[in-house]
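Dear support,

I submitted the protein below through the web form. The confirmation email said the job was done, but the results page showed an empty box. After a refresh the structure appeared. I'm attaching both so you can tell me whether what I see now is the final result or a partial one.
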Amino acid sequence: MRALDKIAPASSTQFAVSVDPSARVRENFAVAVPNPIFILPFVLLLGAMAFAPVMAPRWWAKHYAKVALGLGAVTAGIYFFWLHDTASLGHAAHEYLSFITLVGSLFVVSGGIHIGVRGTAKPLANVLFLLAGALLANLLGTTGAAMLLIRPWMQMNKNRVAAHHLVFFIFIIANIGGCLTPVGDPPLFLGYLQGVPFWWVTRNCWPMWLVGVGGLLTIFYGLDKIHFIRTARPAPENETVRGGWQFSGWSNLLFLAVILGAVFVEHPPFLREGLMLAAALGSYFTTKQKIHAANNFNFHPLTEVAVLFAGIFSTMPPALAWLNAHAAALLGDQPSPGVFFWGTGVLSSGLDNAPTYLGFLSALLGVTGAPDVAALLGQHAGQVVALSVGAVFFGAASYIGNGPNFMVKAIAEQNGVPMPSFMAFLLKFTGPFLLPVLIAVWLLFFRS
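What the results page shows now:
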């Protein structure tokens, strides 16, 4: 079995990179794997995000920035002064810049688009909305679709919006819905850049998409039907969601197109981020104030996400380096598709799903001896499908599994919708509702 070549971790939003499809995942930066003890700041940060909002909410609200940035500074200091590894620090900084530029620009532009809805949506209308959002995620990406649709989703359920509305929005639109095209979710786009044909994902992943989205929509309908009966009275016909849609801020669709087009820009460096920033500024200064007021738009959700993910990106490099160095040894000589589904998935829920995807793809090349991705698809397509679906589906399992998850949480809380804490998300929603769907996907497609 070949040793795993280390690869550079890629964030969930840095789609466009210069790639030699046959060699990119074997790229070796020749940086020593740090001592596992250096992963401790990352673990402490995840623990703080999970427990502090529940055990000490006021303290956390006041000091979360100090905790996140302080732990990030510890890891940065270790890399700079102890390991003398400025390359990894620079790479993490660039990844963070790409992440926050994309998420921030989409946040600003979507804040300039107001979709007004009258009345209270019935459960069936909600299911159709989520299904449409899942399909749209394959065109705009999960981040683009989530940022565009989160406000009208809350508006159409404003009289009875609850945590399950937002959590299933994260499950379906911000994650699993984007499994049909490389544009849909970052791990799949990285696979495309490394030689996976564009329509290969559609041809091979649509059965899993149907089971995943269909299963979650079925569960959501049952939950929402019960909630609707308990909390809402049927709205008069002239106040129902049907026919009550109003759209404002059409010009921002142009800025949205600029951002999505910029994702594909590779050269020169930072042109992609510059285009996104220009689109965000253009949107912000040309959008009418009444549209921002209707969306209750301000920068607080973006600030919270920027601070917390600065800490995550700063503390994550040791964990990614350890994964890249040991994944092949953990997988064994002949790993089954199920190993890749659960291995990629579980780690994607705690790490960013894009670098996790790259790590396991590199491990698969190592253990199979395939000379390139094209040969890998011909001989081990089942494993590639499994790690692709695992990365996308498990990105929904926690707030930090995929970029838009935490942004949805922050926007919801800003609009007065109480969201579950990190641990409550796992215990009340991921475990009871998402996990059975993941098990069903495994049993149907990846068990053997």
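Response: this is the final, complete result; the empty box was a page-load delay. Confidence is low (pLDDT under 50) at residues 1-31, 237-242.
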